[in-house]
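Researcher: I'm preparing a figure for a lab meeting and need a structural model of a single chain. I don't have an experimental structure, so a prediction will have to do for now. The sequence is pasted below. Please return the structure as tokens so I can convert it later.
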Amino acid sequence: MSGFERIGGELALDGVPLSRVAERFGTPCYVYSRALVEQAFTAFDSGLAGVDHLVCYAVKANSNLAILDVLARLGAGFDIVSGGELARVLAAGGRADRVIFSGVGKSRPEMRQALEAGIACFNVESEPELERLDAEARALGRLAKVALRINPDVDAKTHPYISTGMAGNKFGIPHGRALEAYRHAARMKNLKVTGIGCHIGSQILATAPLDEALDRVLDLVGALEREGIELEHLDLGGGFGIRYRDERPMDFEGYCRALARRLAGRGKRVLLEPGRAIVGNAGALLTRVEYLKLDKAKRFAVVDASMSELIRPALYESWHEIVPVAPRGAAETYDVVGPVCESSDVLGVDRALAVEEGSLLAILSAGAYGMAMASNYNSRPRPAEVLIDRGEMLEVRARESARDLFAHENRLADRPAR
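Model: Understood. Here is the structure written out token by token.
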């Protein structure tokens, strides 16, 4: 069995009761399903079987080495946005020649790191970046393979903080300047133009914006071919949405099959960059109720997780389903809040929960942008991460200690008092 289900009234993941995870590893704690990660990746990979393709997992969604290892074993590529993510991919056994380097602010050291590793392609996001990359490749005696990330000015119909493909966003080269930017790149001696990239946003639930962006990309591909600039691949980005509450995500495998049919015969490799869609619903954050607090007419369930562990509700006003692992007593309506000293440290509002002090809660759909965005605010050690693999509980990241928080800091012990 795979997935979240109740066994004898208790919530379990892949057959493992979540209370066992909490008892062994403590709370707060992230827990993931290897089986669900593999199933989600396979939906994309199988759907694109009709064309030459590479599914490049977006590392930013969840960069734990065990998750990257699972995907590397399946033959995944990787979409990275920093030198640190490249180091993680390589440490997890990922292949450099399956890595695509995106992001608007690549530094010179990061470019050198990627060139020396031999990555597959840079997704270049501005004309000045072309100049810098050409210079760094020349200095190393390398040829940098590039695709230009085009901003098609398409509304992804998503939260404005995670929209990336409209004219006012910082990402990509405007569609109107793309042709001239490609001409410029093609003249550079240390660059090899191999593809085109496009990414319009995150948590996209409908195919229409993706289809509109593809239309604009294909128009530009035709214009480039008429100028003698032949591309090897089309990187159509990611941003595929998942169910958090009552959303109706697209059928990922069905979308990929339709995409493969449309692009068959073009002689271009197809790249996609799913992240959330692969890990989002494969994970949960376990947390324990510390106090049940009645304040005027409001009830609060004060838990040991916080915005430091899961910032999405505070940052995006995002909704995560919160359920008792083993319901206790009668259900009451609570705001689920953490101990951090911010009024925004709210994980859920007006939730009907059958809980008592000490009850264990699961915050669902937390596999993406949970631990990856966690912080040490209020000097809180980051939680453990656990992977369920065929019935086994594997600690894939140990809980930080208080000493870990200041391991790289120094006192002024040898400085004279003023």
